[in-house]
Amino acid sequence: xxxxxxxxxxxxxxxxxxxxxxxxxxxxxxxxxxxxxxxxxxxxxxxxxxxxxxxxxxxxxxxxxxxxxxxxxxxxxxxxxxxxxxxxxxxxxxxxxxxxxxxxxxxxxxxxxxxx
Length: 116
Description:
The chain crosses the membrane at residues 7-33, 39-58, 65-86, 92-114. Keywords: Membrane, Transmembrane, Transmembrane helix. By secondary structure, the chain is mainly α. The chain has one domain (7-114). The chain is built from five helices and no strands. The protein has helices at residues 7-32, 37-58, 61-84, 88-105, 108-114.
């Protein structure tokens, strides 16, 4: 069992849980409105996002790796969007949030938490 969860990991896990919940609610609304396959895809992503957030809460290193991959992909997309000139400030914020998330997940305290 993992030790005391660092605040940064808790922040990332809570944000991931909220995002997953919003995705699930949006998917249900979409399904009721007849959105079809897109809504089902969002529902699945929402459920997976909730699962990853719960893994972070429990100290799962696999959940940390999945979240790190997501943050890295978000950072790559943000940098690419800046390069091609799409929504500069939105992408700066998205990239900065991805970096902060990575820092929270790989700080010394987080490393200790996930390797116990």
